[in-house]
Amino acid sequence: MKNSRFFTSIELVVVLGIISLLLGLTTVYYFNFKTATALKLAAHEAAATLNQARSLAITKQEEHSVLFDLANNQYEIQDSAALRVDEEHRLGEGIIIDLCNFDSNSATYSPTGTVEGKRVILKDNKNEYYTIKVLNETGRVKILNYRELPSG
Fold first, then answer.
1. Cα separation of 69 and 120, whole Å?
2. pLDDT value of position 2
3. Is the pTM of this model over 0.90?
4. Distance in angstroms (rounded) separating the CA atoms of residues 48 and 55
5. Would residue 152 count as lying in a domain?
6. Is 91 within the bounds of a domain?
């Protein structure tokens, strides 16, 4: 038998087929991962904004609100004079505010850091949900990776 230093064309075709298959599979998983991560990131950013409004209310000893604009899928922090405190936060493409049951779509923190506990539900185009729940007693924020509807 001859000792060959080169690959046969069959071996090259098999290797190229395996590489193509792996690239195809990883591309599909990458895009699924990217959309799932976008919703989670949006929920964490909204929760961070609610926590920031709570901190500002306690620190400055005046009411601060997070106003949710459902029509434009964005939200912002406002002080007691209804002036914007920071930039508008827009939700990513394919993510909407599915439900906001705060009065006037605004979570208003008192100077003690409390707020009437309600929730905001974010939804992506794959019908996956994240619920951002604000607790009554403390004004703290919880993130749930499912749709929790308000009771009553």
1. 12
2. 59
3. no
4. 10
5. no
6. yes
